UniProtKB/TrEMBL annotation:
GO terms for cellular component: cytosol. It holds the Pfam family ASL_C2. Residues 66-131 form the Argininosuccinate lyase C-terminal domain. It comes from the Bacteria. Keywords: Amino-acid biosynthesis, Arginine biosynthesis, Lyase. One of its GO terms (molecular function) is argininosuccinate lyase activity. This is argininosuccinate lyase. SUPFAM superfamilies: L-aspartase-like (SSF48557). It is an enzyme of class 4 (lyase). InterPro entries: Arg_succ_lyase_C (IPR029419), Argininosuccinate_lyase (IPR009049), L-Aspartase-like (IPR008948). Its EC number is 4.3.2.1. GO terms for biological process: L-arginine biosynthetic process via ornithine.
Amino acid sequence: LTGDLVTVLTVLKGLPSAYDKDLQEDKEPLFDAADTLELALPVAAGAVATARFRHDRMRAALDDAMLATDAADYLVARGVPFREAHHVIGRLVREAEQRGVALSALPLDILLAAHPACGSDILQVFDMDRSAAQRRVPGATAPGAVREQIIRARQCLGEH
């Protein structure tokens, strides 16, 4: 599918601006993509329908390093430029890796010493549920946003 997309985009890129009459070269990749999807979608639907999610394993696989951007955002919210915040958190991630501990397991004094903007509330950043819940824009990970996506998907499926 990616190859078909690249082929069509390459054809479109080669067209002069606002000229869209000469699209004979797009037919082969478009038909190929349709054929591929016709085979792949039932397989994907079957995989999703029979999937068994091991929530315990999923939670065990979570790693504080996934929240490094949240930690940088924490500093940005306190007036630190993102570039600087990124470097500060990068140093903390390396420190945690060298010690063989999770980022949230670093001693509080090390976290506080990383930057003057760090406060004792920085530990709240390392809560996976909180991280997901704070993203509330459409298409995001907050439970309400996910519910809204499910409702929209069901409405779309009901229309077709």
